Amino acid sequence: MTDALDTVFAALADPTRRAILTMLLEDDMAVTDVAEPFEMSLAGISKHLAILAGAGLITQEKRGRVKWCKLEPDALRAASVWMQGFGQFEPVNLDAFERFLEAELQQDASEAPFQGD
What we know:
- The termini are far apart.
- The chain is built from six helices and three strands, in the order ααβααββαα.
- It is globular and about 45 Å long.
- The chain is about 55% helix and about 10% strand.
- A three-stranded antiparallel sheet has the order 1-3-2.
- The protein has a single domain (about 1-110), classed as Orthogonal Bundle (Arc Repressor Mutant, subunit A).
- The chain is mostly helical.
């Protein structure tokens, strides 16, 4: 159990990986679509995705020639239960957490610069 928690928290420690998880809240995405908003190589994004998959936070599957990523929200449940054990933290409501992340995603999208002609 401790090794699994270490892996999840290590995966969540990186802001790029947290941003990827936020993106995947909306829907499954192709790896190339995940990579699009980041200023790094496809190989760099693939390394981040491998860490997220290794932590069980996402799954990846090949559909034809395209590799797709899917969020696995239940993977955060063990971390949530662990944090609740300290009594210092309010119980983590995963539905509320998902709504928060969706709102953050919408806010980030509305603040993005206009890409028109």
